[in-house]
Write a structure and sequence with these properties.
The chain is of the alpha/beta class and about 450 residues long. It contains 14 helices and 18 strands. The strands form four sheets. Strands 1, 2, 3, 4, 5, 16, 17 and 18 form an eight-stranded mixed beta sheet that branches. A five-stranded parallel beta sheet has the order 9-10-13-14-15. A hairpin with a 2-residue loop joins β17 and β18. α2 runs parallel beside α3 and α8 runs parallel beside α10. The chain starts with 10 loop residues before the first strand and ends with a helix. The model has no long low-confidence stretch (mean pLDDT about 95). Bound molecules: zinc ion.
């Protein structure tokens, strides 16, 4: 199987892998047959295979439905010095993501169908990951006037959000939910009450006191999460809470789900991996919004992932230029890159016995497809798009930010040891990423397989 081959009449057999597809309750050694852009089906080992197919050897590897990131900042249009759609999607496929959902806080903001179409066209030109734009909730994400959701939906948006900024009032959020409901669009909220968090640069707690930095209390997030859950009940809308980071947020989502509301949420890897004491270095790559929290909040996120309260893993990939991140901690912009580190950090949870591999796939593929209603994605069922993420849970590696496919390098995970990675990424039947160590990995897997 060659990289970036033509699309027509190509049959590919992903052979000898272990298929994990929660959408079909599949957790077994199977072969996966693809033809052109679509899945033909899962075949039992030993079942007859078409003679004219190319074979991709997945011995000892996990074969999963393509991973979908609900929360990516691609920066184009307007901030191409930080990232472009081409570089961002290159980072995505290298990290195992076949699909990214692009947040609208570009310049100009994606609050109209012309910007939506531009993003889709640039993604088609790059031919790497699928890109689904998210439209702005309000014009210019200014929080005052609702954006033209219907026109953007016709152009291809899959959700609406003013991410990066909170929706300033409950009244505005109610109207946005009611309007979005008319177009069957989920509302995604960056929950943060500005009247509590304004001026804050890190989590409010003992570390913000020690370091003399202004804090953002957990309550700033929790007030808005509770507000949105109440409004989900009032309006019956689909609400998705972005990057939850606090114990109160997890508890509120758990209660909303128990009450049968259409509320979902995502978590970003840095929030379960690092705590606010990392800010002691004054490294601006520990500055993000929501901020790194204290240990008790981190434990609540782990529990939420364990018990199913947290639906999805999202990267919140937020590239910034080195010059911007070189500013004083107070002045530097919020955010870190995440597309190439998320899967490795998620494997940490599997190795620690916090979540199963099945749950990892559910949070990276099955649930994201459901939350944004991405038809024929997040599954390896017959006729689904041939989007596949192939993983080696045992691959030991060290993340080198300098080798990142992203244009930006703002990550606190440079030099971090990881175990587990995406080995190959297939988007609509095309191999768009093959790990440079693939040959070495499969050789090792053969040796292991023949030894047992
Ligand atoms: Zn956000």
């Amino acid at each position: 199987m060659k990289q970036g081959q033509p699309d027509q009449g190509v049959k590919i057999l992903i052979a000898n892998g272990y298929v994990i597809d929660p959408s079909q309750q599949t957790n077994a050694g199977k072969n996966l047959l693809l033809e052109d852009e679509r899945v033909v089906g899962l075949l039992d080992r030993g079942e007859a295979i078409p003679s004219d197919c190319q074979v991709f050897d997945a011995t000892g590897l996990i074969v999963a439905p393509g991973f979908i990131d609900l929360h990516t900042h691609l920066r184009e249009p307007g901030q191409e010095y930080k990232e472009t759609i081409a570089t961002g999607t290159a980072a995505a496929v290298a990290g195992g993501w076949t699909t990214v959902c692009a947040m609208p806080n570009t310049d100009p903001v994606n609050d109209n169908p012309a910007v939506t179409r531009f993003i889709i066209e640039q993604a088609e030109r790059a031919r790497l990951a699928n890109v689904f734009p998210i439209g702005a909730l309000t014009k210019g994400s200014g929080g005052k006037e609702l954006a033209e959701m219907g026109e953007m939906k016709a152009a291809g948006i899959v959700a609406v959000s003013d991410d990066g900024r909170p929706v300033p009032s409950a009244g505005m959020m109610r109207r946005a939910m009611e309007y979005a409901q008319g177009f069957d669009l989920p509302v995604v909220d960056h929950c943060q009450d500005d009247s509590l968090s304004k001026g804050g640069v890190m989590h409010e707690g003992c570390w913000s006191m020690v370091l003399g930095l202004r804090g953002m209390p957990a309550a700033a997030e929790e007030v808005d999460v509770l507000r949105d859950c109440l409004l989900a009940r009032l309006t019956g809308s689909r609400v998705h809470l972005a990057h939850v980071s606090t114990s109160g947020a997890v508890a509120a989502v758990r209660a909303a789900k128990e009450a049968g509301l259409s509320v979902s949420c995502e978590v970003a890897p840095h929030h379960w991996t690092l705590t606010d004491d990392a800010v002691e270095s004054y490294d601006t790559n520990t500055k993000m919004s929501p901020p790194l929290r204290s240990r008790d909040h981190l434990e609540a996120l782990l529990e939420g992932m364990r018990d199913g309260t947290i639906d999805a893993i999202a990267t919140d990939h937020a590239p910034h230029h080195a010059d911007e991140k070189a500013l004083e901690f107070d002045e530097a912009p919020f955010g870190i890159t995440g597309l190439e580190t998320a899967v490795g950090l998620a494997f940490d949870l599997v190795h620690q016995g916090i979540i199963s591999l099945e749950r990892l796939v559910e949070m990276c593929a099955t649930n994201p497809a459901r939350i944004f209603s991405l038809q024929q994605r997040g599954t390896l069922a017959k006729d689904a798009y041939a989007d596949v993420t192939i993983l080696d849970p045992e691959y030991a590696w060290v993340f080198d930010a300098a080798a990142s496919k992203s244009k930006s390098r703002n990550t606190p995970f440079n030099g971090r040891k990881m175990t587990g990675a995406a080995v190959a990424t297939i988007v609509r039947g095309r191999l768009v990423f093959l790990h440079p160590d693939y040959g070495r990995i499969t050789k090792l897997k053969y040796r292991e397989a023949s030894a047992t």
